[in-house]
């Protein structure tokens, strides 16, 4: 393989050799750090524009010495191409940032250049030095800071050492802070010394819903800021950033707070990133991508709802922002605080083993009580007449909803499936609304009368008649949130609100919140009491502090119980507990707060643990199962996925990959790495491509990593020798298998 960029011809006698991380085409088997020539010595982390082939690409001067292999293959200086431009207007990316990127690339088996460039704001990759200097100037003006032109262009090593920044003046009237609960005070007493510790720990803040975890985050951030450091707070979803931002802004008036998530415009994102990188922003709130934000004075990382699957990036470098937060905290000597009422079993295991500090808050704040959980056995409910569908809510749940309406309280109905119905069916010939491109049904969306595939996006108008037999009577089967909303409105049409008027049913899911600001608007209506019954997907179960909700019902949680995925029960437990956590937050109504669960499997152990609000018992039973089955956290997994037009081609790739891995393991030792047979995933065909996957498992993370590092280069070669492989990727620590 080429280890250096091909020469331009032009040579410069006084030039310096620099190692540059660039996005090389991976399949070419090129190294991802290439040598170039620069006119001056450039500090590591400097952003550049370099030629590669006929293109000009962004790159980053990479720290460290070339490996022995790289050195042996290095081209003589005369054959190196010169750097096109060094973006010296931007301070070099800090060494810790480079180290985080390099770790991510190695651990998740991607190229350094790919990760480095993917995690920078997209705008940054386009700008040249002049454009960047203009942006910085504007930014500094907006923030009331000195003109960057006044700074020396070239930074010295000493400039890279972060200095605590002067703390801005405290505003005249400090914000009101609630007196801490006993548990909060205890937790913070244990956390405080960490801000001065030589090697700060990682903590699990295990606090029941409503125990006031946010207040702990706020106080922790306050400590970090008081020490002149920056705090990074991660939330699982964009939707949760506005409310968190509001709380932080209120608590820290006058402090510089920025958010980082994919919902920002490219310009905003660049601006906020620059502000963090330059050390101006003191608080950075964001989604998983914010874990890569350079922060010269990082002093705290919070990961809220650490168990949430959204922390795992699902394409490209499939990193876990939660896991990287733990690594980064260690690297930059910043305390890490992972918060959850239902921690992931991996985190829970670390907390139990003492690797993480366990901080527990078992009580709700004030008089708030956890709702009573009632599990309804659907088998004991009245059966619908011949050819009729069972109503969305069984009689006791419907009665509970009516009861809330009469008292002017809110109910929340949780159904994790959007659209009107998951499939349309022709009773005459058996036609179903399959997707022509995927092995999946197309979902019926009534509002715009479309059949939409949730896997590939393929959408069409609903046919007037059965496409196969012409039958006019094609029927929806099953129920999504859109239909639930409609059915609830019908079920409650004879009910009158105490204040007069009919019952107000609203729905919140990905379909109702497409437009910017619409979620905030809908949530505001709920908070203002303008909604009696709220129907929604898991979007409504996360994080929201609904004060008027006294009833939460899980309409159809069973599908998750029998999913092939080994994490299905863990996920379901977490989402039900989170959902239940929305009820009973108001002290006065807490005593009569309930969570109802409609299930055909009331004997499932998960429900017993849910009734007792006993995460610990649930985790213990799950861990026992995982240990028996040799699944995480007792083993480490990687999943090799591939896609091809033809299933057998995809299988052949995996089979040959498997043979290659086995051969490697035989000669290099690694008896404890297990390679499973290639199988199709639950949805085997998506957008016309057949998917296959192969699981690799080992009790030793090191053994698994060694195999992957040595094996993947072979797979690049294998792929080019096989015709018809559309793509392949390895997913380290996959969330589902
Ligand atoms: P969690 O994130 O643990 O579910 P929240 O942070 O949403 O809990 O807190 C629940 C509610 O309790 C919020 O309305 C919050 O403002 C309030 N709260 C938190 N801590 C205190 C406190 N020490 N005193 C009074 N109210 C508090
Ligand atoms: Zn038909
Ligand atoms: Zn499809």
Automatic annotation (TrEMBL):
Hydrolase as UniProt keyword: yes
Protein role: Initiates the restart of stalled replication forks, which reloads the replicative helicase on sites other than the origin of replication. Recognizes and binds to abandoned replication forks and remodels them to uncover a helicase loading site. Promotes assembly of the primosome at these replication forks.
Family classification: Belongs to the helicase family. PriA subfamily.
Enzyme class, first EC level, given as a word: isomerase
Residues given in the record as Zn(2+) 2 binding sites: 435, 438, 453, 456
UniProt domain Helicase ATP-binding: residue ranges: 194-361
Protein name: Replication restart protein PriA
Cofactor: Zn(2+)
Species: Ideonella azotifigens
InterPro entries: DEAD/DEAH_box_helicase_dom, Helicase_ATP-bd, Helicase_C-like, P-loop_NTPase, PriA, PriA_3primeBD, PriA_3primeBD_sf, PriA_C
Gene name, Swiss-Prot/TrEMBL: priA
EC id: 5.6.2.4
Reaction(s) catalysed (UniProt annotation): Couples ATP hydrolysis with the unwinding of duplex DNA by translocating in the 3'-5' direction; ATP + H2O = ADP + phosphate + H(+)
Ranges for region Disordered: 139-177
Subunit structure: Component of the replication restart primosome.
Keywords for this protein: ATP-binding, DNA replication, DNA-binding, Helicase, Hydrolase, Isomerase, Metal-binding, Nucleotide-binding, Primosome, Zinc
């Amino acid at each position: 393989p080429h280890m250096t960029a091909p020469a331009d011809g032009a040579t410069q006698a006084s030039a310096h050799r620099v190692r540059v991380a660039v996005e090389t085409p991976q399949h070419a088997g090129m190294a991802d750090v290439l040598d170039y020539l620069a006119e001056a010595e450039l500090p590591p982390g400097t952003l550049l524009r370099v030629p590669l082939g006929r293109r000009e690409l962004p790159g980053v001067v990479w720290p460290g010495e070339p490996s022995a292999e790289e050195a042996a293959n290095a081209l003589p200086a005369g054959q190196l191409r010169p750097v096109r431009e060094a973006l010296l207007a931007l301070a070099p990316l800090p060494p810790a940032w480079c180290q985080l990127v390099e770790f991510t690339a190695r651990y998740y088996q991607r190229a350094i250049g790919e990760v480095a460039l993917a995690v920078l704001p997209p705008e940054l990759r386009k700008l040249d030095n002049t454009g960047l200097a203009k942006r910085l100037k504007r930014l500094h003006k907006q923030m009331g800071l000195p003109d960057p032109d006044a700074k020396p262009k070239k930074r010295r090593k000493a400039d890279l050492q972060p200095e605590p920044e002067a703390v801005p003046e405290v505003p005249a009237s400090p914000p009101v802070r609630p007196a801490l609960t006993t548990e909060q005070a205890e937790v913070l007493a244990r956390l405080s010394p960490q801000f001065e510790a030589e090697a700060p720990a990682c903590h699990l803040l295990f606090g029941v819903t409503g125990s006031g975890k946010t207040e702990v985050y706020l106080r922790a951030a306050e400590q970090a800021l008081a020490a002149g450091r920056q705090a990074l707070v991660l939330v699982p979803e964009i939707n949760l950033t506005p409310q968190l931002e509001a709380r932080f802004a209120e608590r820290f008036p006058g402090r510089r707070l920025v958010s980082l998530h994919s919902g920002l415009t490219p310009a905003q994102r660049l601006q906020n990133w620059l502000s963090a990188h330059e050390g101006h922003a003191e608080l950075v709130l964001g989604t998983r991508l914010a874990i890569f934000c350079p922060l010269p004075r990082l002093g705290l990382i919070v990961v809220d709802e650490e168990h949430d699957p959204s922390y795992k990036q699902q394409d490209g470098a499939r990193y876990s922002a939660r896991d990287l937060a733990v690594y980064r905290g260690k690297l930059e000597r910043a305390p890490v605080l992972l918060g959850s009422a239902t921690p992931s079993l991996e985190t829970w295991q670390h907390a139990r083993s003492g690797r993480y500090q366990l901080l527990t808050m078992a009580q709700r704040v004030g008089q708030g009580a956890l709702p009573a959980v009632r599990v309804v056995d659907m088998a004991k409910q009245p059966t619908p007449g011949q050819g009729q569908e069972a109503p969305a809510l069984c009689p006791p749940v419907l009665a509970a909803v009516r009861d809330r309406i009469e008292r002017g309280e809110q109910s929340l109905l949780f159904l994790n499936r959007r659209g009107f119905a998951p499939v349309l069916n022709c009773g005459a010939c058996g036609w179903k609304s399959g997707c022509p491109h995927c092995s999946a049904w197309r979902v019926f969306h009534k509002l715009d009368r479309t059949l939409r595939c949730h896997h590939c996006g393929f959408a069409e108008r609903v046919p007037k008649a059965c496409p196969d037999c012409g039958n006019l009577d094609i029927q929806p089967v099953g129920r999504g949130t859109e239909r639930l909303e409609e059915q609830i409105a019908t079920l409650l049409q004879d009910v009158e609100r105490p204040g007069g008027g009919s019952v107000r049913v609203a729905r919140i899911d990905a379909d109702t919140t497409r437009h910017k600001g619409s979620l905030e608007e809908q949530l505001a209506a709920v908070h203002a009491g303008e909604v009696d019954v709220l129907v929604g997907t898991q979007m409504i179960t996360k994080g929201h502090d609904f004060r008027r909700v006294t009833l939460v019902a899980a309409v159809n949680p069973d599908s998750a119980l029998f999913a092939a995925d080994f994490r299905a029960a863990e996920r379901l437990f977490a989402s039900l507990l989170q959902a239940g956590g929305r009820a009973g937050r108001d002290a006065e109504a807490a005593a009569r707060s309930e969570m109802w669960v409609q299930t055909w499997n009331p004997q499932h152990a998960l429900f017993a643990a849910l009734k007792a609000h006993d995460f610990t018992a649930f985790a213990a039973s799950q861990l026992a199962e995982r240990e028996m089955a040799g699944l995480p956290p007792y083993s480490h997994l990687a999943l090799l996925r591939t896609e091809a037009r033809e299933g057998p081609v995809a299988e052949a790739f995996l089979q040959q990959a498997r043979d290659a891995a086995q051969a490697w393991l035989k000669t290099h030792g690694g008896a404890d790495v297990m390679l499973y047979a290639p199988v199709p995933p639950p949805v085997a065909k998506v957008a016309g491509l057949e998917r296959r996957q192969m699981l690799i498992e080992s009790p030793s993370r090191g053994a698994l990593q060694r195999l992957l590092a040595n094996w993947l280069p072979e797979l690049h070669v294998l792929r080019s020798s096989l015709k018809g492989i559309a793509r392949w990727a390895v997913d380290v620590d996959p969330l589902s298998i």
